[in-house]
Amino acid sequence: MLPRTAALLLATLLATPVAYAEVHEVKMLNRGADGAMLYEPDHLHIAQGDTVRFLPTQAGHNAASLPELLPAGARAFKSKLNQTFEHTFDVPGLYGIQCIPHLAMGMVMLIQVGERSHTALPDTLPARAKARLAAQLQQLEAGQ
């Protein structure tokens, strides 16, 4: 009886589709198609469990979570300058990402994990960063 049960279990496992998490790449740039000091793309809508790989395409950048835009229960992160960095997003919600040396210049991005959440942007951010985040939020809400 045991070999038959094991064979049925194996057949079930082999027939079950496997969901794979995706890896999304984001370039950190001094200059890109949409201006200076930016992430490209500047916003992502990803699935829970997906990973984002931040690539230091040009020197002087990092990727760090914005404490003001971090879902409850999510862990903060900060990469080193000029280093490729990967972060897996396990907690659903809206994440703000900053380049610490260039926050005042507006080097920020948004990552929506899972379903859209309605989050207000913090007033404490520099004006340029807040304006870029507002534009990115608008694009995420429009499904772009």
UniProtKB/TrEMBL annotation:
GO terms for molecular function: copper ion binding; electron transfer activity. InterPro entries: Amicyanin/Pseudoazurin, BlueCu_1, Copper_blue_Plastocyanin, Cupredoxin, Pseudoazurin. SUPFAM superfamilies: Cupredoxins. The keyword Transmembrane does not apply. GO terms for cellular component: periplasmic space. Keywords: Copper, Electron transport, Metal-binding, Periplasm, Signal, Transport. NCBIfam families: pseudoazurin. Binds 1 copper ion per subunit. Cu cation binds at residues 61, 99, 102, 107. This is Pseudoazurin. The keyword Signal applies. Residues 1-21 form the signal peptide. It is found in: Periplasm. Residues 27-113 form the Blue (type 1) copper domain. Its cofactor is Cu cation. CDD domains: Pseudoazurin. It comes from the Bacteria.
